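hey so u asked for the seq, here:
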Amino acid sequence: MENNMQNEIRYQEALKRVKKIKGFYTHFIVYLVINIMIIISNIQNLESGESYFKLENFFTAFFWGIGLILHALSIFLPTWFLGNNWEENKIQELMGKEENNKWE
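ran it, structure tokens below
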């Protein structure tokens, strides 16, 4: 019984992680598609002799790219920022506080 429960917990944790990874890949694909559309639109609207390589043409890709990198770091390097088992420790801490508040 205990083993089945541990397997179920591990399965749920793995499922949660897979959904986070899938969310990142979706974010990445949307980033690529939208930025390609912006590039195509900007190129089509160029005046003759005008260069595409102007700073304002890259603002969206640059700042959204920073967000995408931070998203990737949060998915693929979770122990880098919050440490090992941070989530489990936080759950235990909050459950302990909740239990203490019941008696007050």
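The radius of gyration is 22 Å. The chain has a mean pLDDT of 84.
lmk if thats what u needed
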